[in-house]
Design a protein that fits this description.
It contains 13 helices and 13 strands. The chain has helices at residues 6-18, 24-39, 43-46, 50-58, 87-105, 122-130, 181-190, 210-216, 225-242, 247-254, 275-290, 307-317, 324-332, and strands spanning 3-4, 69-74, 77-81, 107-115, 133-139, 145-146, 153-155, 160-164, 170-174, 199-200, 206-207, 260-268, 320-321. The strands form 4 sheets. The protein has a 7-stranded mixed sheet with strand order 2-3-4-12-5-8-9, with helices on both faces. A two-stranded antiparallel ribbon has the order 1-13. The longest helix has 19 residues, at 87-105. The two termini are 22 Å apart.
Length: 335
């Protein structure tokens, strides 16, 4: 597989966006957002999904030069209309606003309607954690997962995402499906079996075969009935808090994954706990967990701890290794 430098990947993205009329400064920020995700190890959304993103731009579903605006302010809670602009930029702008509100009130929440897929949702709460905050985020999607006990698609994967400051920050980016479709695609491209069951085959039997699940899309909710219930209540909250589209509305009315509803919450930890106490408590939690006796297979890890390893890996390699098929798709967008 080819290794593409960070600079070349960024320039390629910028050229593709600029060719579609995106303003120069916004194109640069959006390209850098995609590449940062990939450089931190999230190839599924920083690279693999870029051609899908551009296909939505070309269909008119994503408005490259639209920006979010506040349409309702209620103290620490604001509603923003994103006007179908790029989800990555919406996320970055609204994450910054949530932190501004948190600095004033201790907590800040921005509900976002008419947004678009923001790719790796962890990017926005990680941005908060790196500034010393705790962050919580969620987004809905079209119906792409069966409800527990069902066969056809009635639920979104509706990720719930959390991060908290630390050395390094802790980040959990959790789709309500056992495997996100982005991660599932990674296994399809690598032609590798899933480590644990991911859904049902055509005969209704549990399977680890990513090719079968990529085709029939009978993916499992995370934690079986628990993930199914979480997906439903998250959609209800997202719809009520933002005043935007629900999973049924996206699926039946919009007919595609655009105009989604999202929220971002920032908590200013400097207002909730003394800095030295925070440092000591976080250190104790880490050490307590990491001192676990290892199981027969696997190692004990804390979420988010591998980000710097990916960055160093790409630095040493001179770039990011990209699947030939995906790189060909990206380059074809230049023509």
């Amino acid at each position: 597989m080819p290794i593409i430098s960070i600079e070349k990947l960024t320039d390629t993205y910028k050229s593709i966006l600029s060719a579609r009329g995106m303003q120069t400064e916004s194109a640069a920020r959006l390209a850098e957002g995609f590449v940062e995700m990939a450089n931190e190890g999230i190839y599924s959304h920083g690279i693999n999904r870029f051609p899908v993103f551009i296909s939505q731009v070309d269909k008119g579903q994503i408005k490259l030069n639209e920006t979010p605006e506040c349409v309702n302010s209620m103290g620490a809670l604001e509603q923003w209309d994103c006007h179908y602009g790029p989800g990555v930029l919406n996320g970055l702008i609204c994450a910054d606003r949530a932190m501004e509100l948190a600095r004033q009130y201790g907590i800040g929440m921005v509900g976002m309607r008419h947004s678009n897929h923001w790719m790796r949702g962890g990017s926005y709460v990680l941005r908060m954690a790196r500034e010393g905050f705790a962050g919580i985020a969620a987004t809905n999607s079209t119906a792409v997962m069966p409800a527990w006990g069902g066969k056809d698609h009635r639920l979104g994967t509706n990720p719930l995402i959390m991060a908290i400051a630390g050395e390094p920050p802790v980040l959990v980016d959790c789709s309500m499906s056992q495997y996100s479709y982005g991660q599932l695609q990674n296994y399809v491209l690598a032609d590798k079996e899933l480590p644990v069951i991911g859904g049902y085959d055509d005969a209704g039997e549990l399977t680890k075969d990513p090719h079968v699940l990529w085709k029939n899309k009978r993916i499992l909710p995370m934690g079986f009935w628990k993930g199914s219930s979480m997906s439903i209540v998250l959609d209800m909250m997202l719809t009520a808090i933002t005043g935007g589209h629900s999973v049924p509305a996206l699926t039946e009315d919009m007919g595609g994954e655009f105009g989604v509803s999202q929220f971002l919450i920032a908590i200013d930890l400097s207002k909730t706990i003394d800095a030295s106490q925070f440092s000591a408590e976080m250190k104790r939690i880490r050490e307590y967990v990491l001192s676990s006796e290892p199981a027969e297979s696997g190692t004990v890890q804390i979420a988010g701890s591998s980000i710097e390893k990916f960055i160093e890996k790409h630095r040493e390699a001179g770039g990011i290794e990209i699947h030939e098929q995906i790189w060909e798709q990206i380059q074809a967008l230049l023509s």
